[in-house]
């Protein structure tokens, strides 16, 4: 149980759960029962609502695991409690006979689909797998149900790849949970900018230019920008870069018109935050979004050493100490499952989080390497910027006003966890999410199911948010070579 509990974390509803499922051009009318594994309910406590008109079954073994994992202040415990409440809301005061038949799932003013609890039965010919593992018990129960009701298609939904393999070996259909996977390939994820070869203006046949104060705005037909020049949809706060030094920031996309604000690459490269200047144009546009008071959410992705953390930290200190836009900087990140309780390390919450947020301290030191008294500067900045290290487990229920919330290693969060953190931002606050989708350490999460991917895709049309994928590894020649060839 300990090994299974340590890795119960993620998931998403499959395309096969939709009523439009077709095989060989004909609608599939076979009744379906989707059996949910524990990690599905932990990944998304509302997952049982995402199977439309189909029957959803939760094995008794899964309820027992939720009960064992529900205690504590970790994200896993909180998600277990949320899943249990959701199950209780649907089942209510139903009798055992009604539960076995299936309780209609209420969806506002109507019901769709049913929920049942799968009782331990054992297969008619004896258990196919040894019952000493919870995974095996669930598979055996599904096999027994399938043998008793061969006219129904039973599908085991789990994030555990090995469990899916075992199920298929036993003749049971098994799938991942894809309801919150908005892209099938992270190559589809927005980079935050478009690189146009040659000159952008050589391809423009129609434009309306207006000078508004110190800003130059260009209004171009949507069809021209998307259909003829870029070949894909555009969203606010994305950038268009060309080889001649033109940078256009997309301000709005409405009424068939794309409005760009004109920038020059040279001007953007001259920006600085707390003495830090961008080293390439991707860092330059990222820094502009970070420093923009009208942008409330910034996502920075990229390889290790691409400058995500140091850019975000320099901008955070600049806006907190010099511009006084924020009262404090809240730094947090996901932690490995074995450290979720934060009871293994002595000291205060900040001292316990210090090993996990070492990247923040490293970058504060990097920003002050050339100071006459680096250690004094670091202490001064931490005090003036009011930098606080917070554990994700204790952020639930908090409301941070006029704060800059810096979420490091956010690729290790589930969509549900990401939502729980972002909704902590109160009036006058800004959230910066940093992550590298190539370095996911959380069990059952992949680049496509990561909360970072989900959030980036969901917020790409948010006019007060922006996302940039950083290129290159300016940390060092060694880091760049390792990132490329190892």
Protein model, in words:
It is a single chain. This protein has 486 residues and is of the alpha/beta class. It has 17 helices and 20 strands. The strands form four sheets. The protein has a six-stranded mixed β-sheet. A six-stranded mixed β-sheet has the order 9-12-13-14-11-10. It has a six-stranded parallel β-sheet with strand order 17-16-18-19-15-20. Helix 11 (308-322) crosses helix 13 and helix 15 (415-422) packs across helix 16. The chain is globular, with a radius of gyration of 26 Å. The protein starts with a helix and ends with a helix.
Shape: globular
Mean pLDDT: 86
| Percent in strands | 15-25%
The DSSP helix count reads 17
Poorly predicted spans:
5-25, 337-342
Structural class: alpha/beta
Distance between the termini: 35 Å
Q: Provide the spatial order of strands within the biggest beta sheet.
A: 5-6-4-3-7-8
Gyration radius from CA atoms, angstroms: 26 Å
SSE topology:
Blueprint (H helix, E strand, L loop, with lengths): L1 H5 L15 E2 L2 E2 L4 E5 L1 H6 L11 E5 H10 L5 H17 L4 H6 L1 E5 L2 E9 L15 H15 L4 E5 L3 H9 L3 E3 L17 E4 L11 E5 L2 E7 H9 L8 E4 L3 E9 L2 E8 H5 L11 H11 L5 E6 L5 H15 L5 E6 L15 H5 L4 H10 L6 H11 L2 E3 L13 E6 L6 H8 L7 E6 L15 H8 L6 E6 L6 H9 L1
Parallel strand pairs: 3-4, 3-7, 4-6, 7-8, 9-12, 15-19, 15-20, 16-17, 16-18, 18-19
Antiparallel strand pairs: 1-2, 5-6, 10-11, 11-14, 12-13, 13-14
Helix pairs in contact: 3-4, 10-11, 11-13, 15-16
């Amino acid at each position: 149980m300990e090994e299974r509990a340590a890795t119960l974390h993620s998931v998403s509803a499959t395309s096969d759960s939709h009523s439009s499922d077709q095989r060989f051009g004909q609608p599939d009318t076979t009744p379906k029962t989707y059996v949910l594994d524990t990690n599905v309910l932990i990944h998304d406590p509302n997952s049982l609502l995402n199977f439309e008109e189909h029957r959803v079954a939760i094995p008794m073994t899964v309820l027992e695991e939720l009960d064992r994992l529900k205690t504590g202040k970790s994200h896993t415990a909180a998600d277990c409690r949320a899943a249990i409440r959701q199950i209780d809301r649907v089942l209510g005061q139903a009798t055992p006979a009604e539960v076995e038949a299936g309780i209609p799932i209420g969806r506002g003013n109507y019901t769709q689909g049913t929920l049942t609890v799968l009782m331990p039965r054992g297969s008619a010919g004896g258990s196919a797998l040894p019952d000493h593992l919870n995974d095996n018990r669930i598979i055996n129960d599904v096999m027994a149900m399938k043998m008793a009701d061969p006219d129904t298609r039973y599908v085991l939904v789990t994030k555990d790849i090995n469990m899916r393999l075992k199920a298929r070996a036993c003749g049971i259909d098994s799938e991942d949970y894809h309801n919150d996977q908005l892209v099938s390939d992270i190559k589809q994820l927005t980079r935050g900018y478009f690189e146009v070869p040659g000159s952008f203006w050589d391809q423009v046949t129609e434009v309306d230019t207006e000078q508004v104060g110190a800003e130059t705005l260009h209004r171009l037909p949507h069809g021209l920008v998307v259909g003829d020049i870029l070949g894909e949809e555009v969203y606010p706060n994305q950038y268009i870069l060309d080889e001649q030094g033109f940078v256009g920031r997309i301000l709005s996309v409405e009424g068939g018109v794309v409005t760009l604000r004109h920038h020059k690459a040279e001007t953007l490269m001259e920006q600085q935050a707390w003495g830090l200047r961008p080293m390439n144009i991707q860092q330059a546009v990222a820094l502009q979004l970070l420093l923009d008071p009208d942008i409330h959410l910034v996502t920075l992705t990229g390889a290790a050493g691409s400058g995500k953390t140091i850019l975000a930290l320099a901008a955070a200190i600049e806006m907190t100490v010099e511009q006084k836009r924020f009262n404090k900087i809240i730094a947090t990140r996901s932690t490995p499952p074995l450290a979720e309780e934060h009871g293994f390390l002595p000291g205060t919450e900040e001292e316990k989080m210090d090993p996990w947020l070492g990247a923040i301290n490293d970058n504060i030191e990097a920003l002050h390497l050339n100071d006459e008294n680096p250690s004094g500067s670091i202490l001064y900045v931490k005090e003036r910027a009011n930098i606080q290290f917070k554990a994700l487990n204790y952020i639930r229920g908090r409301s941070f006003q006029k704060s800059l919330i810096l979420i490091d290693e956010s690729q290790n969060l589930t969509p549900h966890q990401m939502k729980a953190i972002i909704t902590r931002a109160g009036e006058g606050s800004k959230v910066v999410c940093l992550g590298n989708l190539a370095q996911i350490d959380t069990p059952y999460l992949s680049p496509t199911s990561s909360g970072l991917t989900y959030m980036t895709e969901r917020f790409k049309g948010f006019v007060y948010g922006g996302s940039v994928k950083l290129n290159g590894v300016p940390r060092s020649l060694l880091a760049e070579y390792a990132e490329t060839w190892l």
